[in-house]
Amino acid sequence: MSRLSVVLPAYNEELMVGKTCRVLHEVLAEAGISYELVVVDDGSKDKTWEEITKAGEEDGNVLGVHFSRNFGKEAAVYAGMAQATGDVVAVMDCDLQHPPETLISMYHLWEQGWEVIEGVKKSRGTESLLHKESAGFFYGIMSKATGVNMQNASDFKMMDRKAVNSILSMPERNMFFRATSSWVGFKTTYVEFEVRDREAGQSKWSTWSLIKYAFTNIVAFTTAPLQFVTVVGGACFGCSLILIIYSLVQFFAGRAVEGYTTTLIVLLLIGSAIMLSLGIIGYYIAKIYEEVKRRPRYIISQILRGKEDVYQEVN
Ligand code: UDP
Ligand code: MG
Q1: DSSP string over 8-59
Q2: Where are the transmembrane segments (predicted)?
Q3: Å from CA of 92 to ligand 2 middle
Q4: 11 CA to middle of ligand 1, Å?
Q5: Span from the CA of 115 to the centroid of ligand 1 (angstroms)
């Protein structure tokens, strides 16, 4: 019989993680699906690990993975996928914002032969208008970069073992899971779901961390900003040509303009264009630096299967 692994990244989720495990146990047992829950504690500062340990005592199908510190959700998802042993692997948030019932529909689609089943948000829940608009802008860029429509994409998805293995075989450290699962291809279908409100605990995303997330992922996935640098350079060059010709004409006609304002404007414009370009290029270099260091994506301090400590040297 096939087995489903559900990967649940958890960071400071002491209020939700136990409940999520119980709800998933009920829903999956009722549907008669053989499963394991791979809960990854992403270096939580609260009692999340204690809650995962408790969940493991209640349900032998829980595999708890404890990070040595916070490595971020992408790393937690990757670690969970690496530990998962199922024939099919689902990834979902452990705050019950992704409805467990949708998991069952996804599973049935997998049984029908679909290899990647993407969860698509029906609406973006109770987010602010600014948040929705900037998300729309970001996913517009990402859709162009990946060639896949990513509007309302989410981290809620189910993947066949084949797709999981191909994602795990990708060597890059800066991975954008949401887009990578489309990038690997395979027979893909989509399931809409309604984002639920968070019952307890807090969202880990501040506006600033979202901006950083957007920029990092654009850089991880596309070289479009570098082309933007070229365009800015080209535009500056075009303007300079016009200005040069204009100034020369003025000069030979004996009407050379007074210099200060023009000089200042040109200097500042070019200066800022150069700084902006350097910043963008610098960001790519920083990412290349991170990649060539080949550091592990995460460090695990403990792994529990049910009550048993099954930690082995990894990476
Ligand atoms: N998460 C994580 N590491 C982090 C931040 C978040 O593993 O550094 C997990 C978190 O526990 C949750 C999921 O990622 O299961 C989504 O986080 P959150 O609910 O804060 O995001 P939102 O639903 O507000 O987009
Ligand atoms: Mg959430």
Answers
A1: EEESS-TTTHHHHHHHHHHHHHHTT-EEEEEEEE-S-SSSHHHHHHHHHHH-
A2: 228-252, 264-286
A3: 10
A4: 6
A5: 25
Report which ligand 1 atom has the smallest distance to the Cα of 94.
Answer: 15
Q: How many CB atoms lie within 10 A of CB 129?
A: 7
**CA–centroid distance, residue 200 to ligand 1 (Å):** 13
Which range is least confidently modeled, 27-41, 85-99, 121-135, 275-289? 121-135
Kindly state if the Cβ of 94 falls inside 6 Å of ligand 1. yes
Phi, psi of 184 (to 5 degrees): -70, -15
Residue 80 beta carbon below 6 angstroms from any ligand 1 atom: no
Q: Is 306 left (phi over 0), alpha (psi -120 to 50) or beta?
A: left
- Number of C-beta neighbours around residue 65 at 10 A: 28
Separation CA 100–CA 21 (nearest Å): 10
Dihedral pair phi/psi, residue 179, rounded to 5°: -90, -30
17-41 residue pLDDT tens: 999 999 999 999 998 999 999 999 9
User: What is the pLDDT at residue 217?
Assistant: 79
Ligand 1 center to 10 CA (angstroms): 7
The ligand with the least distance to the CA atom of 155 is 1
Task: Write out pLDDT tens, residues 81-96.
Answer: 999 999 999 999 998 8
Mean pLDDT of 135-147: 77
Are the CB atoms for 99 and 79 separated by under 8 Å? no
Among protein residues, the one with the nearest Cα to ligand 1's atom 21 is 203
- Extended strands (E) in the chain: 3-10, 34-41, 62-67, 88-91, 116-121, 153-160, 188-193, 300-305, 308-309
Which of the listed residues 204, 209, 212 should we mutate to test ligand 1's pocket, taking the one with most ligand atoms within 8 A of CB? 204
> What 3-state DSSP class applies to 133?
helix
Measured from the Cα of 202, ligand 1's closest atom is: 20
